[in-house]
Specification:
Oligomer: heterodimer
Shape of chain B: elongated
Strand content of chain B: under 5%
Number of strands of chain B: 0
Number of helices of chain B: 3
Largest sheet of chain B: none
Largest sheet of chain A: none
Radius of gyration of chain A: 25 Å
Shape of chain A: extended
Structural class of chain A: mainly alpha
Helix content of chain B: over 70%
Structural class of chain B: mainly alpha
Strand content of chain A: under 5%
């Protein structure tokens, strides 16, 4: 084993420990802000693993999109739903957590048995050199993956418009509010008041 | 002894199972969305492993991964918008209280 292979193995070990550790932190910690930052750590370690897999463009895309956009979006959402509430302890919580952990460990054992038992036909031809991955990805995007590429742009447009419509507030203009109506809302901008449905009520609203 | 395909597949399987655990046991709705992102990243790691070890000439696995990243980002945006509007109506993000569809 020469130096390069040793470095690869050690990097793989460090990145995999970091990834599993931060992923466990995401699902196990009770503070949601810590979980969100550790999710960023998961994304960074996965980008490092992509580099070990000769994927320079996808590693950069992972960092830009996941760490730079998705993680920041999650942190903004946590900021906007910043209600300091202690969830009422559910009775027999340990039953759900224990059985889920059991199912997940069983699923992992099943998957690992399949992974270790399958004779994978690993590519054993000549060493692949030549164009960097971004050139090959670009060629794919405009030849045999053209339709999914165009559909992805439509999907992004739909997601953007949909998220804006779902998350906007209805602001009413200043002059339409009666001066002494005593409306109090969470934000200081004049918002169309909506009554807060008490959590857990079962009355369905008409319309 | 260099890196083999099985290492990456095992790692992806472990991350996927951690994501499933977080998805089912989280009470905070935002943490559920974070667990979904973990699962999607596990799938991406799988695809990239296959692309590098089985198809290193035409890296179709990497193209697929770019599409999965795109769809996951769009889904995270819409999902968080939904969580935000639920929070505005019900003043909580506790998954145990979102029980209108319960029979």
């Amino acid at each position: 084993m020469n130096l390069a292979e040793g470095v690869q193995l050690v990097s793989f070990g460090i990145l995999s420990v970091m990834m599993i550790g931060t992923a466990l932190g995401v699902v196990l910690l009770s503070n949601i802000v810590y979980s969100a930052f550790l999710l960023g750590g998961v994304f960074v370690s996965i980008a490092g693993l992509y580099l070990l897999l000769n994927a320079d463009f996808v590693a950069a895309a992972q960092l830009l999109i996941y760490v730079g956009a998705v993680n920041v979006l999650i942190l903004f959402a946590i900021m906007l739903v910043n209600k300091r509430e202690d969830f009422a302890p559910m009775a027999n919580r340990w039953i759900r957590q224990g059985s889920t952990a059991l199912v997940c460990v069983g699923l992992f054992l099943l998957l690992s048995t399949m992974v270790l038992a399958t004779p994978w036909s690993v590519y054993s031809g000549a060493a692949v050199a030549g164009d960097s991955s971004i050139v090959k990805i670009g060629l794919h995007f405009f030849s045999d993956f053209l339709l999914p590429f165009e559909l992805a742009s439509v999907l992004l447009l739909m997601a953007m418009v949909g998220a804006i419509i779902l998350a906007r507030r209805d602001y009413i203009p200043e002059e339409l509010i009666p001066r002494d109506s005593g409306l109090t809302t969470a934000s200081t901008l004049p918002e169309r008041p909506r009554e807060l449905v008490s959590a857990g009520s079962a009355t369905p609203r008409e319309g | 002894m260099h890196l083999q395909l099985q290492y990456f597949l095992l790692l992806a399987a472990a991350l996927f199972c951690i994501g499933i655990y977080g998805l089912i046991t989280s009470r905070n709705a935002v943490r559920v969305l974070m667990s979904i992102e973990l699962m999607l990243n596990a799938v991406n790691l799988n695809l990239m492993g296959f692309s590098n070890f089985i198809d290193p000439v035409g890296i179709k696995g990497q193209v697929f991964t770019v599409f999965v990243i795109t769809v996951a980002a769009a889904e995270a945006a819409v999902g968080l918008a939904i969580v935000l509007s639920i929070y505005r109506n019900r003043d909580t993000v506790d998954m145990e209280q979102f029980n209108l569809l319960k029979w």
